[in-house]
Design a protein that fits this description.
GO molecular function, one term: acyltransferase activity, transferring groups other than amino-acyl groups
Structural class: alpha+beta
EC number: 2.3.1.-
Number of strands: 7
Radius of gyration: 14 Å
CATH superfamily: Gcn5-related N-acetyltransferase (GNAT)
Keywords: Acyltransferase, Transferase
CATH architecture: 3-Layer(aba) Sandwich
Pfam families: Acetyltransf_7 (PF13508)
Number of helices: 4
Helix content: 25-40%
Number of domains: 1
CATH class: Alpha Beta
Protein name: Putative acetyltransferase
């Protein structure tokens, strides 16, 4: 694993995001998916402290932390279930003091992943941060 803030790292991270979202976010409309993806390199990735997981020098997953919040954690669909997500989460907790994460309520696999890792439900919002109709669960580390 390595940290990065280099824009040259962004294109493979966008590809990982796309792969992960295609596998887990079937509730997102195509319009919303395209809008979010269009802002990854310009808004979302530069705003967080990134950690990139690699296998044989190739990025396979990444996380982003800001002010104790795990803002993003995505693993390439080909590598789901291989422990990369757990390693990224553990790094975010131990090295970046991540204690909070917001998860789309419809992403049941992610909710189960975080609760299995010791997070509990601390609140809920009817919409996501952009006001889209995707409820968020606000989770906090026990």
């Amino acid at each position: 694993m390595r940290t990065s803030q280099r824009p040259t790292d962004y294109p493979p991270l966008v590809a990982i995001w796309r792969s992960a979202v295609n596998a887990t976010h079937d509730f997102l409309s195509e319009v919303d998916r395209r809008e979010i993806e269009s802002k990854l390199e310009t808004d979302y990735l530069p705003a967080v402290s990134l950690t990139i997981a690699e296998l044989d020098g190739r990025p396979t997953g990444f996380s982003g932390v800001l002010d104790g919040n795990l803002e993003m954690l995505f693993v390439d669909a080909e590598h789901r279930g291989s422990g990369i997500g757990t390693r990224l989460l553990n790094h975010a907790i131990k090295e970046q003091d991540a204690r909070y994460v917001d998860v789309n309520e419809q992403n049941v696999q992610a909710v189960e992943f975080y609760t299995h890792q010791g997070f509990y439900l601390a609140g809920r919002s009817e919409t996501d941060d952009a006001g889209r109709p995707y409820p968020l669960l606000h989770l906090q580390l026990s």
